[in-house]
Amino acid sequence: MAKSSSLLFHLTLLLTLLTSHSLPTNPKPKQRFTKIYAFGDSFTDTGNTHSTTGPYSFGYVSSPPYGTTFFHRSTNRYSDGRLVIDFLANTLSLPFLPPYLSRNSDFSHGANFAVAGSTAIEYEFYAKHNISIDIVPVSIMTELGWFDKFLKEKGGAPDMEKTLFWVGETGANDYAYSVMSSTLLPDQMRGLAVNNVNNFLEGLLKRGAKYMIVEGLPLTGCLPLALSLTPSSDRDALNCSLKVNKQSSAHNSLLLTRVQALRKAYPHSVISYADYSAAHRVVMQNPKRYGFTEPYKTCCGSGGGKLNFDLFATCGSPAVSKACPDPARYVNWDGVHLTEGMYRVVSDLFFRHGYMRPSLQVLLGKSKADEGK
């Protein structure tokens, strides 16, 4: 009996020693991005714009019913709830990005420099062409300047291996503003807008950015604003504005060409392209599949009819203090911006269903690999 107990003790001790040597003593935690820096316009802005500073026709973002679905109050987001950038933060287990202009915020996990109404082309260009009445004096390059100032205040650049840069769709405002001029040609606007976006992207890369997601334009011709301003004869297979969607498509094609060139010029960085137009299109082709019964009608608008949109009585104004009872069934929130439900679907298509190339998983995988170097 004593021999059996001694043998069992030694076998147990040997097994413990072998097991302890076969297991890592300090396993590495799963790598995730720890910071996001975001740029863009109202599709990405999480609060830099207020009613007093926003575009005139949509100058009520601080009023209800903005924010009614998720936050239950206005957070100065142009939606009833969260945006794609918010769903990205959720996906990466990071807090929502505070707006840069809220200077007392906690910026330990990044900042959002996007501004509603901002443009790709500098404000001075529009002032020169006498179309600056309703234009927010902020461009994507203004946001880059803010980023530089922010880094200087924080004492230097972040750990780029753990930082993700999000460049939200940029250029839609430029094309909308150019309608006010008879001298600005579409090809000219496209060349200037994409060139500025390219310069902005290269500016981030020169500052050391290693991981970047760049959004293309959505189907701007499917927004109620575009549909209300174009004749019924100007329609494509989706029953959206053919002319406006062609404009966005041409912008996206040129932008993707520039992104591909930047990938070659900066091979040690990963630049992903989020195909907003394709994601938007797949929803508009079969909205019911994604839970939408109102693909064109404005949830928070006025005027009734197919679009429920009046440019002079928009969401949050005294004339429109209530939204539709179920925003999740609507693609469009206020005539230009989308509902949280639509942003959720677009985010899922981006992050899990191949509408972002390279995928988010590739970016995360590359980031893990770099950490191990």
From TrEMBL:
GO terms for molecular function: hydrolase activity, acting on ester bonds. It comes from the Eukaryota. Keywords: Glycoprotein, Hydrolase, Signal. SUPFAM superfamilies: SGNH hydrolase. InterPro entries: GDSL, SGNH_hydro_sf, SGNH_plant_lipase-like. Pfam families: Lipase_GDSL. Residues 1-22 form the signal peptide. Belongs to the 'GDSL' lipolytic enzyme family. This is GDSL esterase/lipase. It comes from Rhynchospora pubera.
